[in-house]
Amino acid sequence: MRSFQLTLKRLIDIVLCLAVIFVFWPLLVLIAVLVKLSSPGPIFFLQERVGLGQKPFRIIKFRTMVERRSNGPVAAWTAEEEARITPLGRFLRDYGLDELPQVLNILKGEMSIVGPRPPLPVQVEDYTAHQREMFQMRPGVLSLAAVEGRRSIPMEKRIALHVKYVQEWSLCLDLKILWQALFVVLRRQDAAESVIK
After folding, report:
1. Distances in Å between the alpha carbon of 20 and those of 39, 55, 133, 168?
2. CA separation for the pair 17, 38 (Å, rounded)
3. Which of 46, 43, 17 is nearest to 31 (CA)?
4. CB 136 within 8 A of CB 167
5. Which residues of the chain have pLDDT under 70?
6. What is the 3-state secondary structure (H, E, C) of 64-77?
7. Theoretical Cys-Cys bridge with 150: which of 16, 39, 174, 190, CB 3.0 to 4.6 Å?
């Protein structure tokens, strides 16, 4: 039954992503143009993350920050990083619009609409065997941690919620997270950044 539900989950991911591209392509184009005009730099932000089976992949987002000199990963959020967020980037982050390009990650099979948020490789180095259970499912754009506290909860609790999601997963849980995420985003609940997503 779980195998069937996982197959259905993947099918739902593909159908919904194609629907988003078909319906919201004017919005995607508009955001891309605004990002390009708002500050120097590329339209998209690419970063290596760890996904299903602990395999690395490159996550794609709309760029929300001015580029910094160093290209190394940032594992902890600082005031300096906060200051790099553009006004447009702040708006995109508050309403989750910067995540829209991840429909491409989903269509490629690297991500799912709902699942654990994919961490940076440097963060995974300190994970315990129990915490690494989160890599038993595809990472998601939305997560249980997002609806439980979004960016306000500490990293340890976020990881625990990711593991809990994998252990208790069902299609009903995905639907519940999707429904709750709608209200979390509309209220801009816990939209302030504390550590890297």
Report:
1. 26, 26, 30, 28
2. 27
3. 43
4. no
5. 69-81, 150-152, 186-197
6. CECCCCCCCCCCCC
7. 190
- Looking at residue 196, its pLDDT comes to 41
Tokens of residue 113, six digits: 């609409």
Confidence (pTM): 0.87
Matching residue, tokens 């194609």: 18
Distance CA 128, CA 125 (A): 9
As beta bridge partners, residue 46 has 60
| Spatial CA neighbour of 167 closest among 124, 127, 131, 191 | 131
How many of the other CB atoms lie within 10 Å of CB of 185? 18
- Rounded to 5°, angle at Cα 88 from 85 and 94: 80
Task: Report domain extents, the chain.
Answer: 2-186
Predicted pLDDT of residue 194: 39
Measured in degrees and rounded to the nearest 5, phi and psi for residue 55 equal -85, 135
* CA distance linking residue 175 with residue 8, whole number of Å: 13
